[in-house]
Automatic annotation (TrEMBL):
InterPro entries: RNaseH_sf, Tc1-like_DDE_dom, Transpos_IS630-like. Gene3D superfamilies: Ribonuclease H-like superfamily/Ribonuclease H. It comes from Hahella chejuensis (strain KCTC 2396). Pfam families: DDE_3 (PF13358). Residues 15-160 form the Tc1-like transposase DDE domain. Signal peptide: none annotated. This is Transposase and inactivated derivatives. One of its GO terms (molecular function) is nucleic acid binding.
């Protein structure tokens, strides 16, 4: 991993961390404060929609993402990898670190590996059960626990707009220090 990051720092490769995450109106806020005697109440949404987000993130604050209300499957993962193939620097290899989710190991996903490698995209699997090595997990945590305003949970449309707005502004208004 350190070698890959060194090669990225030297400008020899593009290094991306790939993963999926889900957002719903069920708040992810683990705790909160309110004045004594005036508890803050939030509406609960037990049966709600889910916004699924797939993304490639680099330590250089670059993010390529796709948000959908549909179920995420191998076809959606393949489509986003194809989008990366279209947008990456053709002269520089792109290494993509990803977890061992079934949709990343499916026959459909594997069928595209040689095409991606021909286009300079090298998917590499992280060790099983090691989400701490996938830096995009930090992005998902920041969005859910720090950057999403509380009023984002009032309607699903507002949640979708807020998530898309934050992710679209990642690298400009929203940054992560990976030091």
């Amino acid at each position: 991993m350190k070698d890959l990051q060194s090669w990225e720092d030297a400008g020899e490769i593009e290094l991306y961390y790939f993963d999926e995450s889900g957002f719903s109106q069920r708040s992810n806020l683990p705790y909160g404060w309110s004045p004594v005697g005036k508890p803050t109440q939030m509406k609960s949404y037990p049966h709600n929609k889910r916004l699924n987000v797939l993304g490639f993130m680099s330590r250089r604050q670059k993010l390529i993402f796709h948000a959908t209300e549909e179920r995420v499957d191998s076809a959606k993962v393949v489509a986003l990898f194809n989008k990366l193939a279209e947008s990456k620097d053709p002269l520089k290899p792109a290494v993509v670190l990803l977890d061992n989710a079934s949709m990343h190991r499916s026959a459909e996903f594997r069928r595209h590996r040689l095409d991606w490698m021909d286009k300079g995209i090298w998917p590499i699997y992280l060790p099983k059960y090691s989400p701490e090595l996938n830096l995009i997990e930090i992005l998902w945590r920041k969005v859910k626990y720090s950057w999403l305003p509380l009023d984002s949970y009032e309607t699903f449309d507002r949640l979708r707009e807020s998530v898309n707005d934050i992710l679209s502004k990642f690298g400009q208004e929203y940054k992560i220090n990976f030091v």
